[in-house]
Amino acid sequence: LNLTRFHGVFAPNSPWRAKITPARRGRGAKPTKPTEDRTPAEQRSAMRWAKRLKRVFQIDVETCPSCGGTVQIIASIEDPPVIERILTHLASKDLPGLWAESRAPPTERIGLPH
Questions:
Q1: Residues whose CB falls within 8 Å of the CB of residue 64, separated by 6 or more in sequence, listed in order
Q2: pTM strictly above 0.85
Q3: Is residue 4 part of a domain?
Q4: Which backbone phi and psi does 18 adopt, to 5 degrees?
């Protein structure tokens, strides 16, 4: 479900959208020249999620922060019972900083004027 609505030149049917978006999609898009560096499949493909994260949030999920090597995804766990088992197992270990300590709200006055 896409909850983002674009207006102006970013609107889906804007004739100028193809001139300002990297994917060159939109009503005014023209075929790209075959002399470009990218293959036709790369020109048609959407931006990968890792590239989007890097572009928007400056998060590089494809490079290891320790050694600088390439990170390879080996699994994607999406089954809720499996996720629950993993989190329960991690909670049973004494890992500092994994879970926030629960506490009651402060009961003393903090010195604010009435």
A1: 70, 71
A2: no
A3: no
A4: -65, -25
